[in-house]
Amino acid sequence: MSTINYDLKNIKALAFDVDGVLSSEMIPLHPSGEPMRTVNTKDGYAMQLAVKQGLHVAIITGGKTVAVRIRYEGLGSKDVYLGSSVKIHDYEHFKNKYNLKDEEILYMGDDVPDLEVMRTCGLPCCPKDAVPEVKEISKYISHKNGGYGCVRDVIEQVLKAQGTWMADEAFGW
């Protein structure tokens, strides 16, 4: 298992794609035609803890499923961007809303629609099963696949570097 080679103490915000990052790349379809995402409970635990520790957490996805909004707002994210056809626009909105600098933002994506944001943010990361174009520009490639703990991997490293991983808030939901 490798570690992120970046000054994680300066990270103030985390942003994540859903399909292929927070959810596996295999998406079952409901009989109604609605895509159904998987979620990883360890990713969810880490996300809610990151919010409690003062990090801004955004979800930027091209998907439009209401269940995604419910899940991630339920974990404390105040910034869930659904139907994001050009992700850089929502990334810039998120960045400006909190007066952040690019170098203060970690973004994790896995596919071509994430490239523009990943070229802009300070710390582009990806899961182990990301496409080659994304891996090529990532400063960190998780040892975990999308939907299988890659988000927990990066959040845990950030919070450990900031000394907040096992703080009092860690022992409750």
UniProtKB/TrEMBL annotation:
Assembly description: Homotetramer.
Protein name, per record: 3-deoxy-D-manno-octulosonate 8-phosphate phosphatase, YrbI family
Entries under InterPro entries matching the protein: CMP-NeuNAc_synthase, HAD-like_sf, HAD_sf, KdsC_fam
Protein family membership: Belongs to the KdsC family.
Domain of life: Bacteria
GO function terms (MF aspect): hydrolase activity, acting on ester bonds; metal ion binding; N-acylneuraminate cytidylyltransferase activity
Entry binding sites for substrate: D19
Binding-site positions, Mg(2+): D17, D110
The UniProt record lists the keyword Metal-binding: yes
